[in-house]
Write a structure and sequence with these properties.
The protein has eleven helices and no strands. It is mostly helical and about 325 residues long. The longest helix is centred in the C-terminal third of the chain and has 32 residues. The chain is globular. The termini are far apart.
Length: about 325
């Protein structure tokens, strides 16, 4: 059995879809607006490559040669880079929404915050990917090299003729790796199936190899993608507490009392529907002539008369003797 959040706390799809759509639209538009200067982007890319060579961590060089010389590796890697980024992440979101709704909000908030942090990185540090550097640096654009196998052209993973709709200098950090890490951790933590958990571990590792082997990212881009997801994870809980406080504040009426609280009746007593029904007087039934023992209707006592019909509250005999 899957656990679900309490009814009042479950996320609603008609509020989640617009939220995710707005954030993704902001992310896509921000990528286009943050193209920056090509010269500075190339300079940032060369600086990253020089730093990696200094510490001998430029893993993208041997991987790119491996993918270029072996189509059996390069072609599937290109398909993975062009599609899994946009398929696996939404699928995991939907799975969490349906099967693990009690954890959905935190994981969704973690993903959205990390994405916006990545957008800040694209804006402040536009970076030329390895595939767009001068060929003298030893990189081959596998997406262009194997473009006859897929729908993409020479502009990253964009379909042919739509290269102007993507920012090719948004390499730092790698959100391909960041989103894959988020998806893998969610599958590992919340799935009960062994093969799904194994896939959760393998998926981000495979995407890290893919982004370097296709010359779309440097090794440090992948490291930065992991760092962005870590920062987003730390900020997710405070963000949820902040939004929860706002909902609690604006969800109450002007008196500070929640609108859902039932008003008290008669001081601290609260009238229930059952007690209200029992408090009503019973309807008196008229005597039936065919009844062998006629039932006499009770008579309402009038002022100055007791409940048994005698005045002054005395018995009938005492009243007669007094007269």
């Amino acid at each position: 059995m899957y656990r679900t959040a309490p009814l009042g706390k479950r996320p609603r799809w008609w509020t989640e879809l617009p939220l995710i759509a707005v954030v993704y639209a902001m992310y896509s538009a921000g990528r286009l607006l943050a193209r920056g200067d090509v010269q500075s982007a190339v300079g940032h890319g060369l600086s990253i490559l020089d730093l990696e060579k200094t510490f001998r961590i430029n893993l993208e060089h041997p991987l790119n040669r491996l993918f270029t010389n072996n189509p059996v590796l390069g072609v599937p890697a290109d398909f993975a880079y062009a599609s899994l980024h946009y398929v696996v992440t939404p699928a995991v979101l939907i799975w969490l929404f349906r099967r693990h709704s009690e954890h959905y909000r935190k994981l969704r908030t973690w993903l959205l915050i990390s994405t916006m942090i990545g957008l800040i990185g694209f804006t402040l540090l536009p970076t030329c990917p390895p595939r767009l550097l001068d060929p003298s640096h030893g990189f081959v654009d596998t997406m262009r090299h194997y473009s006859s196998y897929g729908w993409w052209g020479g502009d990253a993973s964009a379909p042919r003729g739509m290269g102007s709709l993507t920012n090719q200098y948004a390499a730092m950090p790698s959100l391909h790796v960041g989103w894959a890490l988020w998806s893998g951790l969610a599958l590992w933590k919340y799935s009960s199936r062994t093969w799904v958990r194994v896939a959760g571990v393998a998926y981000p590792l495979a995407i890290a190899l893919v982004v370097m082997g296709t010359a779309n990212h440097y090794f440090l881009d992948a490291v930065a993608g992991v760092g962005v997801m870590g920062l987003g994870y730390l900020l997710a809980a405070p963000a949820l507490r902040f939004t929860g406080a706002l909902r609690s504040r604006f969800g109450k009426d002007g008196t500070g009392q929640s609108a859902e609280t039932a008003p008290a009746v008669g001081g601290e007593c609260e009238t229930s529907a059952r007690s209200a029904r029992t408090a009503q007087p019973e309807t008196l039934r008229e005597a039936d002539p065919s009844d062998p023992i006629p039932r006499q209707l009770p008579r309402q006592a009038v002022r100055g008369e007791a409940a048994d019909g005698s005045p002054d509250g005395r018995p009938d005999g005492a009243a007669t003797a007094a007269r």
